[in-house]
Amino acid sequence: MNSLQIGITVFIFIEFLNICILYFQPLSKKGNGVGIFEDYVNLSENDDYKDFVGYLINWVAGAKLIFIFIGIVVVVFGNYNTQLFTVLALILSILSFYWKLYPTIKILDKKGKINPRGYYKTLNYMILTFILGFLTVFLVNIV
């Protein structure tokens, strides 16, 4: 297994754990659990919104499944170039977090809608770790 396959496999494993949290423990404050959002509890207990909120959470989990299965196909059947450009695509797609999601979670955190407070900083470090890890794998393979 080359370093590209290892990097993609680590991502697959972490995303698998995140999907498990979303499907089976959405109230969790770990991984991609939505328990950090104060409004989640209120909305999920409100009969007018709970089905919609559940749908959105399952939609996110389903979208993550797409990444996982594509990653598995690339690791198992992809050639070196496919794996290299998959890592580049993952870097770019993960960077999109900073376009809309990061500003929103930062605002929610500053309004006291996130528990624990300051979680946007933790999430920022986690996302940066993914990006830097993939960037390292990518650079090692092109140098």
Structure write-up:
- With 143 residues, the chain is mainly α.
- The protein has one domain.
- Helix 1 packs antiparallel against helix 3 (50-77), helix 1 (3-24) crosses helix 4 (80-95) and helix 4 (80-95) packs antiparallel against helix 6.
- It contains six helices and no strands.
- 76% of the residues lie in helices and 0% in strands.
- The protein is globular.
Estimated radius of gyration: 17 Å
In total, how many beta strands? 0
Instruction: Write the H/E string, N to C.
Output: HHHHHH
Morphology call: globular
What's the average pLDDT? Answer: 95
Q: What portion of residues belong to β-strands?
A: under 5%
Largest sheet: none
- What portion of residues is helical? over 70%
Structural class label: mainly alpha
Low-pLDDT stretches: none
Compute the separation of the termini in Å: 18 Å
Features:
single chain; 143 residues; mainly alpha; 6 helices; globular
Describe the structure concisely for a colleague.
The protein is mainly α and 143 residues long.
Secondary structure layout:
Elements: H1 3-24, H2 38-45, H3 50-77, H4 80-95, H5 101-110, H6 119-142
Helix pairs in contact: 1-3, 1-4, 1-6, 2-3, 4-6, 5-6
